[in-house]
Amino acid sequence: MAELPLERTLVGLRFDGEPQRGAPLSVEGRIVGRVTSCAVSDAVRASIGLGWIRTVDGAFPQTLAAGDLTATVVPTPFYDPEGERLRG
pTM above the 0.85 mark? Predict the structure, then answer.
């Protein structure tokens, strides 16, 4: 049996402000998901969260709107890979 294409996935998000849980995630005005959780992280010095998103034209978007904010898809788990916080 052939596998079905992945149409929805849970992603890590980094926001340019403080989003609200449940906020719609959209691309060019089209809602493609929702913020499921969010918090301000001292470790990465930004607001981070998780969200379920759907594909747009067969691919998962990397930048989305969360209301008036911009959400960027980032790898999880959230951490400071360059160790900048430890050196600061």
Answer: no
